[in-house]
Design a protein that fits this description.
Elements lengths: L10 E5 L9 E5 L2 E8 L2 E6 L13 E3 L2 E3 L6 E2 L5 E3 L16 E7 L2 E6 L19 E10 L3 H9 L4 H4 L18 E2 L5 E10 L10 E11 L2 E8 L6 E11 L2 E10 L6 H21 L18 H13 L7
Antiparallel strand pairs: 1-10, 2-3, 3-4, 4-9, 5-6, 6-7, 7-8, 9-10, 11-17, 12-13, 13-14, 14-15, 15-16, 16-17
Bound molecules: FE2/S2 (inorganic) cluster (FES) and fe (ii) ion (FE2).
Length: 324
Amino acid sequence: MSAPNPSAWWLPLASAARFDDAAPLAAEHLGEPVVLWRDGETPVAFADRCPHRGARLSLGCVRERTLECPYHGWRFDAGGLCRLIPALPAFTPPDGHRVAIWQVREAFDLLWVAAEGAPGAEPHAPPSLEQLPPRRVLCGPFDVATSAPRVVENFLDTAHFGLVHEGGLGDRAHLEVPDYEVAHDALGRPGVPHYRAWQPKASAAASKGTWVDYRYQLLSPFSALLEKRAQGAMPHEAYALWSSPTGDESCRAWFTIFVDDGAPDDATLIGFQQRIFAQDKPIVESQRPRRLPLAGGELHSAADRLSGAYRRWLRQLGIEHGCC
Ligand code: FES
Ligand SMILES: [Fe+2]
């Protein structure tokens, strides 16, 4: 399997709720400037460069279902066609007067963007997730000074729980990582179907320590899912990590928390996740090299089986971005 051109990767670039109907939003897809706006309810993404004289369209505004350039007011509809040149109001712009468009899709409360012609299917597209608790809470964005694969690997790593998250996701009395099996799904994505860990406070709702059954699953090269089920009363919960490379050594990440209706309010869930990630962030930003080594240079133990499988999968996909 080979990696599509990076411009064809679907990357989450913004929270869907992050911009209003009148103001476009500037974003970047692996360094390429993109502007996001809404045509009614429908999100639209253009190259953030006016084809007239190169001004940034994200400095303009949305008018009458078009995006208006801030410089000479050319207006582009959702298909990218120029509909109006204010200096020549009687002129009908020809079909070639167009701005370059990107594909955009809304999934998990985020706007995902890929170049025109990008494949719509996994593993490079937003995944479809089923049988998760129905309530979704989006947390982020977090800008992290390391590569996206380092952040994903940290999300998959349980051996740090009792050290980095002592008293929360783990404790020093339970540092051992029980034996676990890595399995690959139909798309070849590695995961761990069953993993068991002791957690003093496994979630925002937990009031005491408990054994937790985990399931890990890679969803795409830069995203992963963790499902938790505790022994006894703790409800089913899931956490998705969505990371988006902003460079080879920097990324932006969000988490979606999937919970049942009876879970604590959004602010409590977000606060818990922010505290957890605030513990991870200085560690992952300290790792050198920032790009995930795929061809040696780091030592592995049997407890690192899942991260080893992740690295091998990235190699099979031909992913070079954020890897060395
Ligand atoms: S640069 Fe956009 S209208 Fe002239
Ligand atoms: Fe962590």
